[in-house]
């Protein structure tokens, strides 16, 4: 099951499970669309892969399958990635 991390690893922007605008790589590294496009230029700084839009989770399923609450951030934001 998709972990659905709650934030962008670069800028720490909130990315709720039901919201659009989150991007993930094949390892579920999670970033906001702005950081993917403007800072990372489409390449994951953690694994070197590309990104796809993260699917949203239907509100009716959030209680049964809650998203992760663990916030993952890069120690330097994405300063060294761009």
Automatic annotation (TrEMBL):
InterPro entries: DUF1272. Pfam families: DUF1272. It comes from the Bacteria. This is Urease-associated protein.
């Amino acid at each position: 099951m998709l972990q659905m991390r709650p934030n962008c690893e670069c800028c720490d922007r909130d990315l709720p499970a039901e919201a659009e605008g989150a991007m993930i790589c094949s390892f579920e590294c999670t970033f906001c669309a702005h950081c993917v496009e403007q800072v990372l230029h489409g390449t994951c700084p953690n694994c070197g892969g590309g990104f796809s839009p993260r699917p949203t989770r239907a509100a009716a399923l959030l209680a049964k399958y809650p998203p992760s609450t663990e916030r993952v951030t890069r120690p330097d934001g994405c300063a060294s990635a761009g």
